[in-house]
């Protein structure tokens, strides 16, 4: 859904553009939760434009004047000024006319209106009529295109009468499960439908109760849900709709066996909607088992990063990556920054280093408890922390407005993850930066990303670290490489590293 205003890993140990969100209760209890509307929440957010502030509240005096040292292009488009939003309770049906054409119920239109949405996004325009018609769907859409509402709205529309749990939504991570359940609650605020949230890392007892109450909608991660099904504490005999969200990610995380077992335990006579950012061969195999004569709905090439993002690659030695992060924080106009690391230890080490320089940092990875993860994410959302250091656990499961910069401290191993990481910025029509720190041992990973997205990523330099490595070897925009055998790629990498004086990682 097009919003005219600024809006807003691991499963067992373990919220997309413009799909809303609410605050999860600190207790982690599943079931129906009442939350503030998007407009109310947005009004309470701390927005510190301009200079980046440290944890002690001191603006970075003298830092802004150094911005010109960064080699960002001067031709970035200007952000689109937001349109005014009608206040909550002042329902003006004319403002939801484009949604009315999708034959949505008045209660849903009212919720859409409260959230400030004026027009459906392309994936919503295409998917909602098909879903309302009862057809199975394979939906391909980038992160941040409103796909959650694309399946939530028609699902809520169809929940008329009946009893028992009629909708099951599977997501790869706890964070995404929380986000999806919140979207169902936002959009269904004027309906009587109830939502149960099932995921690992919290007590079973509250979940037993929510499942016993037969909530209309169950949003779950595969591992914990299967535990309940094996314990006979979850019944889906009345299931009408199955939604597989971020299906490619679930398979990447090794949930294929769990999903297959769940499919064998639920009714075959159902509507199934599968949504994924990418459609690899593994998804095709899953769709053949889970769906019947599906309609393919795609709105954009899945490898294409979102518009409004400036991409930059900094050639840098691995040992100087923490210094590079500090240089970016000091020299750029940063509202809030999300830093991705490959490992949990790396996230903690970087977080410690930033805190020693007086920055306020939140951290999320699979070794953090659920309470710690929720506290970190909420603190990042409300502006208590301007920096969030995380592993890919949040690459798809975070929806925070005003993330101005995404920094890849480590180059992602899979090109698809680069697209998802970058998609955390430039939300709701804003401008954002996706910056990647590339050590000599990561050159091939960057080139794989470039082949995947179909374009070279510009090389940029940090003046304070310009003599760190030989820029002539790493600073040029590479030409697309033909696929090479593994031995050839290794030898090529070895030659590059020898010229830079650095060893293979």
Describe what this molecule looks like in 3D.
- This protein has 505 residues and is of the alpha/beta class.
- It folds into three domains: 63-77 and 303-500, P-loop containing nucleotide triphosphate hydrolases (Rossmann fold); 84-117, no CATH class; 122-298, Rossmann fold (3-Layer(aba) Sandwich), CATH 3.40.50.300.
- It is built from 18 helices and 13 strands.
- The chain has helices at 38-44, 97-100, 106-114, 122-132, 147-158, 174-187, 205-212, 222-230, 247-252, 256-265, 281-290, 321-331, 344-356, 370-381, 415-422, 443-453, 471-474, 486-500, and strands at residues 137-140, 167-170, 195-198, 217-220, 241-244, 271-276, 295-298, 309-315, 337-340, 361-364, 387-390, 405-408, 432-438.
- It has a seven-stranded parallel β-sheet, sandwiched between helices. A six-stranded parallel β-sheet has the order 8-13-12-9-11-10, sandwiched between helices.
- Strand 3 (195-198), helix 7 and strand 4 form a beta-alpha-beta unit.
- Helix 4 packs parallel to helix 5 (147-158), helix 5 packs across helix 6 (174-187) and helix 8 crosses helix 10 (256-265).
Task: Name the features.
12% strand, disordered N terminus, disordered C terminus, seven-stranded parallel β-sheet, six-stranded parallel β-sheet, Rossmann fold, single chain, alpha/beta, 3 domains, 13 strands, 34% helix, 18 helices, 505 residues
């Amino acid at each position: 859904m097009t919003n005219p205003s600024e809006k807003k890993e691991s499963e067992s140990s373990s919220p997309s553009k413009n799909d809303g969100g609410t605050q999860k209760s600190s207790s982690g209890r599943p079931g129906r939760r009442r939350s503030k509307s998007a407009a109310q929440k947005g009004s309470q957010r701390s927005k510190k434009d301009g200079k980046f502030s440290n944890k002690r509240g001191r603006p970075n005096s003298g830092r802004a004047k150094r911005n010109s040292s960064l080699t960002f292009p001067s031709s970035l488009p200007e952000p689109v000024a937001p349109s005014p939003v009608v206040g909550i309770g002042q329902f003006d049906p004319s403002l939801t006319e484009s949604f009315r054409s999708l034959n949505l119920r008045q209660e849903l239109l009212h919720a859409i209106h409260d959230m400030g949405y004026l027009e459906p996004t392309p994936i919503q325009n295409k998917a909602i009529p098909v879903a309302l018609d009862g057809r199975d769907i394979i939906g391909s859409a980038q992160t941040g295109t409103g796909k959650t509402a694309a399946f939530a709205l028609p699902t809520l529309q169809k929940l008329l009468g009946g009893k028992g749990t009629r909708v099951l939504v599977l997501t790869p991570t706890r964070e995404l499960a929380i986000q999806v359940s919140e979207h169902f609650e936002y959009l269904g605020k004027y309906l009587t439908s109830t939502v149960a949230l099932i995921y690992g890392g919290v007590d079973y007892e509250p979940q037993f109760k929510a499942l016993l109450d037969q909530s209309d909608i169950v949003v779950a991660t595969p591992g914990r849900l299967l535990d309940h099904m094996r314990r006979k504490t979850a019944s889906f005999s009345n299931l009408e709709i199955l939604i597989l969200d971020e299906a490619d990610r679930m398979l990447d995380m090794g949930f294929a066996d769990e999903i297959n077992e769940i499919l064998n335990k639920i009714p075959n006579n159902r509507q199934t909607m599968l949504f994924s950012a990418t459609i690899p061969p593994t998804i095709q195999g899953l769709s053949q088992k889970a769906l019947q004569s599906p309609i393919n709905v795609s709105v954009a090439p899945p490898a294409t990063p979102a518009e409004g993002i400036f991409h930059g690659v900094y050639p840098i030695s691995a040992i100087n990556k923490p210094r590079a992060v500090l240089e970016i924080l000091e020299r750029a106009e940063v509202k809030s920054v999300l830093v991705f690391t490959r490992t949990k230890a790396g996230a903690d080490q970087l977080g410690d280093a930033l805190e020693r320089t007086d920055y306020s940092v939140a951290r999320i990875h699979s070794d953090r408890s659920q309470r710690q993860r929720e506290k970190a994410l909420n603190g990042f959302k409300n502006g208590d922390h301007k920096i969030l250091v995380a592993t890919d656990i949040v690459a798809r499961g975070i929806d925070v407005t005003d993330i101005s910069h995404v920094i890849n401290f480590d180059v992602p191993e899979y090109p698809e993850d680069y697209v998802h990481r970058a998609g955390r910025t430039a939300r709701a029509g804003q401008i954002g930066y996706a910056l990647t720190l590339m050590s000599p041992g990561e050159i091939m990973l960057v080139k794989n990303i470039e082949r995947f997205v179909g374009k070279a990523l510009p090389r940029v330099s940090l003046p304070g670290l310009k003599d760190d490595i030989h820029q002539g070897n790493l600073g040029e925009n590479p030409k697309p490489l033909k696929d090479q055998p593994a031995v050839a790629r290794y030898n090529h990498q070895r030659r590059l590293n020898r010229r830079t004086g650095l060893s293979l990682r």
